[in-house]
Design brief:
The chain is an alpha/beta fold. It folds into 3 domains: 228 residues, no CATH class; 227 residues, Rossmann fold; 206 residues, Rossmann fold (3-Layer(aba) Sandwich). The protein is built from 17 helices and 24 strands. Strands 1, 2, 3, 4, 8, 9 and 10 form a 7-stranded mixed beta sheet that branches. A 7-stranded parallel beta sheet has the order 13-12-14-15-11-17-16, with helices on both faces. It has a 7-stranded parallel beta sheet with strand order 20-21-19-22-23-18-24, with helices on one face. Strand 12, helix 7 and strand 13 form a beta-alpha-beta unit.
Length: 696
């Protein structure tokens, strides 16, 4: 019997159906009641090195099946520590699991590298990609994923690349002694099973390969059943009504319609305060070009919490990551992108990577303090910028692309059709230059936050381009200024404007317009630990229950000061239900479900949102910013000579970034109600006690 996890008419399903046709020609599959084969079509692996496989095929027989091969299968075995070659003419096959990478390329678009890896050519980006490594990575990630969920030995996984549009006779021109076992063609028939059996025989495991009977299998019954059932396949958290609203906004028409004329014609920049919808505007364009033009779109940001949130949104919308064939959207770390680019082009050496690995091992706790990383990263980008500038002076931008294509180890990220730049005001000049050199200004869309600079002097994108705010004027860069508070309910916008009026010299928040379509909103200020205030917790519990539609824990956002950990709070929650965005490594993992509660450092909350945001010990965070201010980090100049008034202004500007994160309500807890921030909040409470509530 053949089973399928999905019957969508995609390339992978078509390939799986053909493999089924080939297998049914074999005697061992003549009786459908004697076996069960399941094809998991594009199983999702979560936030791993590889996001998914084309397909995983698993098969179990009611009784082990005897298979006699046309030629004996050769394999090596260790006997008393000595490697001995053996051969098997007949085996008993109990079960198997195989990772299949499907390629629909023609014969002219495949080749073998010097390492005998199969490479395939993608016309869209004019690059050759290593399909063998892709298949290898899928197996290792699958084993890692299964190993996390079961006790005992992980399964032994076979693998092969399936060339759907190539027949094995076309390989006659290659001088193979034996046809590659890890490559199967359209008409391979028994070859599919030969490949699987040969690989299982090669695995040096007496537990699975018994010499007398030569019974082979991928796993014992318990492990096999767990893999075969497919319950391990990762699923995105269930979308709440706020997720659905966001998805509808991303999928809606681009406004104004004239904006479509700018795509692929000029650089586009959206600028505005926090909560004015800059990211949504970028994602609307990303969705449009991905859907209408099958384009690949790369979204770059420093913020891992935002990356994970956007990846979940893309999964919920059914938008795949970037691919060589049909296009997709990939939120990715800015640092990771440039690090990989510099590494693959030789600007970050193996010695550099060994030093970084050693530093990570020596650290007792995960930390954001990556001083050695910063030195290596900055040095590599400066050298790469210098060489790119020299190359551009003597050649052209198209030559930069050709130079990158010659390096087949580069990720597909480097050949995206469009790049979205998040928080562009904070990028290093070298990052900006390299991105424009690689992709060209016409393919770059930027979001810049007013009053949200964290690196000092804001970066200016397209400084040499002609600019305009009007559609009728021809230009190289189109600027858009957003002023309406799209995220926050109207009371929250009023609170933000009043807070900014009392703390900032720059009247930037005066132009923030309240969202008249979303009335209401509450601010709850509590003295001391929020988790000890049972009255407020009950109010918020009832508030969630009264909300029409689903409000999940994942819709909430907890922000804590630098130096604190989630475990410092007596939250009473199961650790498995916490998405720890404070931890340097855990924050790179996807939330396990909609029941997960998000925790981030204040400095990582920019770009995020929560139906309710919890600003724990906001006065302590204000003190941190007041005492640790820096300006123009890119140039290395410290804020040493600043007056207390300048430091106070900067601290309040950072606090305002956190205060613009909520949708419906925000909770602020205070370590000391008599602190400068505490007194200010009490003053605002007295002005607006109907929606700014105070709890002791």
């Amino acid at each position: 019997m053949f089973l399928y996890s999905s019957e969508d008419n995609c390339d992978e399903f078509i390939a799986a159906k053909h493999i089924e046709t080939e297998l049914t020609k074999l005697p061992i599959f003549s009786d459908p009641d004697s076996f069960e084969i399941k094809f998991l079509i594009e199983p999702y692996y979560g936030n791993k090195l590889v996001g998914s496989s084309d397909m995983m095929m698993s098969c179990k027989f009611v009784e082990p099946k005897e298979i006699e091969f046309r030629n004996s299968l050769l394999y090596a075995r260790k006997v008393n520590g000595e490697l001995i070659e053996k051969e098997a003419k007949t085996i008993l096959l109990k079960n198997f699991i195989v990772a299949i990478e499907t390629k629909l390329h023609s014969y002219e678009k495949i080749r073998f590298s010097e390492a005998n890896h199969l490479e395939v050519f993608y016309s869209k980006n004019k690059i050759w990609k290593n399909a063998s490594k892709q298949n290898d990575d899928q197996v290792w990630v699958y084993r890692e994923l299964i190993d996390e969920k079961i006790d005992g030995r992980p399964p032994l996984i076979a693998k092969f690349i399936y060339l759907h549009n190539i027949k094995k006779e076309q390989f006659d021109n290659y001088s193979f002694k034996d046809f590659p076992m890890n490559i199967r063609c359209n008409n391979h028939g028994l070859g599919f099973i030969e490949s699987i059996c040969h690989q299982l025989l090669q695995f040096n495991s007496p537990e699975y390969v018994k010499q007398k009977k030569t019974i082979i299998s991928s796993a014992n019954d318990h492990t096999y059943n767990f893999c075969h059932d497919g319950g391990w396949v990762q699923k995105p958290p269930k979308p709440s009504k706020f997720d659905i609203k966001k998805m509808l906004a991303i999928g809606s028409r681009i406004s104004p319609p004239e904006a479509l004329l700018d795509i692929n014609q000029r650089m586009i920049e959206y600028r505005g305060l926090g909560g004015t919808g800059k990211t949504i505007k970028l994602l609307q364009i990303a969705r449009h070009v991905q859907k209408e033009e099958q384009a690949n779109v790369l979204f770059l940001t420093y913020n891992w919490a935002l990356i994970i949130g956007l990846r979940v949104t893309m999964q919920q919308m059914g938008i795949k990551p970037m691919s060589e064939d049909v296009g997709g959207i990939l939120p990715e770390s800015c640092n990771r992108f440039f690090f990989q680019l510099a590494k693959n082009l030789g600007y970050i050496t193996n010695f550099d990577q060994e030093r970084l690995a050693q530093e990570r091992l020596l650290k007792a706790k995960p930390s954001d303090d990556e001083s050695l990383y910063d030195k290596i990263y900055t040095k590599a980008l400066k050298e790469l910028t210098k060489d790119f500038k020299e190359q551009l002076e003597s050649t052209s931008k198209s030559d930069v692309k050709d130079f990158l294509r010659e390096n087949s180890s580069l990720n597909l990220n480097s050949f995206a059709d469009f790049v979205l730049v998040d928080e562009g005001q904070d990028w290093m000049p070298e990052e900006q230059f390299i991105l424009e050199a690689v992709f060209g200004y016409k393919n770059i869309l930027v979001a810049c936050g007013d009053g949200q600079e964290t690196r000092g002097i804001p970066t200016i994108w397209g400084s040499t381009l002609t600019k305009s705010n009007f559609y009728k004027v021809e230009c190289q860069k189109r600027n858009h200024t957003l002023s309406k508070g799209m995220r926050m309910k109207s009371n929250l916008s009023l609170f933000i404007k009043l807070f900014a009026q009392k703390t900032l010299i720059d009247p930037m928040y005066e132009k923030l317009k309240a969202n008249d379509e979303a009335l209401g909103g509450d601010i709850f200020i509590v003295e001391g630990d929020y988790f000890k205030n049972t009255e407020l917790r009950e109010i918020l519990r009832q508030k969630r229950q009264a909300e029409k539609g689903d409000v999940y824990p994942l819709d909430l956002l907890h922000c804590i000061p630098p130096g604190m950990k989630v475990s410092d709070f007596n939250h009473g929650l199961d650790e498995s239900l916490i998405w720890d965005g404070v931890h340097a490594e855990k924050r790179k993992e996807n939330p396990k479900s909609e029941k997960s509660l998000r925790w981030v450092n204040y400095r990582s909350c920019r770009g995020l949102e929560g139906w309710i945001t919890f600003n724990h010990y906001l006065d302590q965070y204000w003190e941190y910013e007041f005492n640790t201010q820096k300006l123009d980090i890119a140039q290395g100049s410290l804020f040493e000579n600043a007056t207390d008034e300048m430091k106070r202004y900067e601290a309040y500007r950072w606090v305002l970034i956190a205060l613009t994160r909520p949708i419906d309500s925000m909770v602020i807890s205070l370590k000391n109600k008599d602190s400068e921030l505490g007194k200010l909040l009490f003053e605002i409470h007295n002005l607006h006690p109907t929606f700014v509530h105070w709890f002791k």
